[in-house]
Amino acid sequence: MKAENFPQEAKRLRPVLVSVAFGIVGDHDEAEDIAQDVLLKLWTLCPQLRSPIDALASVATRNIARSHLRRRHPSCNIDETELSESDEKTEIDASFDRIISCIDALPPFQQLAIRLRHMEGLEYSKIADITGSSESAIRKVVSRARIAIRNQYWEEEKNERKKDCRVD
After folding, report:
1. Among 43, 116, 130, 134, whose CB has the most other CB atoms within 10 angstroms?
2. Is the pLDDT confidence value at 117 over 80?
3. What stretches of 1-82 adopt beta strand conformation (E)?
4. Same-domain pairing of 161 and 102
5. What residue numbers bound the domain in which 45 lies?
6. What share of the chain is helix, strand, coil (3-state, %, to 5)?
7. Which residues, including other chains, have CB under 8 Å from residue 112's CB and lie 6 or more apart?
8. Which range has highest mean pLDDT (36-45, 62-71, 133-142)?
9. Distance CA 68, CA 62 (A)
10. Is the pTM of this model over 0.85?
């Protein structure tokens, strides 16, 4: 692409890129910044680009917007947070109780496999002997149980945070 053609392409693409970025980050100002970053990167690559650049620009915008979301972290002033040891212990206990409730919600065979593996510390081969299954089957069952626990845990965590946000 020639440098003379780039300003026209940029004017044409900018609203599309802002829209794509806004769909991901949900903030118009951040979406504008992301679109600007993409256009700047495309400008630096201008001699190597071939028209049309729409697809490349959209993919770059999605990737940069997702990277931007990953860098976002909720922050609070450390001076305002006072966490005593009892509060910390309560949080750990609540987290442990939530994990146990997630395990209790599993199908019986997954419960057995995950408890034998992580609570009793048994090897996969030993669990296979106890249950009469193959070692590879036990590995799959434990893996699926972990995934189910993780998904349920984070779903409950997300719901808990939503409740906390409504209270404030």
Report:
1. 116
2. yes
3. none
4. yes
5. 6-71
6. 80, 0, 20
7. 131
8. 133-142
9. 10
10. no
